[in-house]
Design brief:
The structure is a single chain. The protein is α+β, with helices and mostly antiparallel strands. A hairpin with a 5-residue loop joins β1 and β2. It has one helix at residues 66-80; strands at 6-10, 16-27, 30-37, 46-52, 58-62.
Length: 81
């Protein structure tokens, strides 16, 4: 995946949602991706952690730890300055 790639994810209602990759970053040996929804970019970006499944394929997972999420947002904001 590279910046400006398109990714299709399935939401909680089993609807396909298209996203554009805005940025990738690595923090403390974890990889993250910032995605912007194509249909409604005003809704704002989402940040997901990139992990690998048992086959070595990249999968995207929600960041459930508030401290981890806050740290990623803080680093993203500092990069934008």
């Amino acid at each position: 995946m590279t910046d400006n790639d398109k990714i299709t994810l399935i939401d909680e209602n089993n609807n396909e949602v298209e996203f554009t990759v805005v940025d990738y970053l690595e923090i403390d040996d974890n990889r993250y991706v910032v995605l912007l929804p194509d249909e409604d970019p005003e809704e704002g970006a989402i940040i997901l952690r990139v992990e690998q499944d048992d086959d070595g394929e990249d999968i995207l997972v929600e960041i459930e730890d508030d401290d981890e999420f806050d740290r990623v947002v803080e680093i993203l904001e500092s990069e934008m300055d």
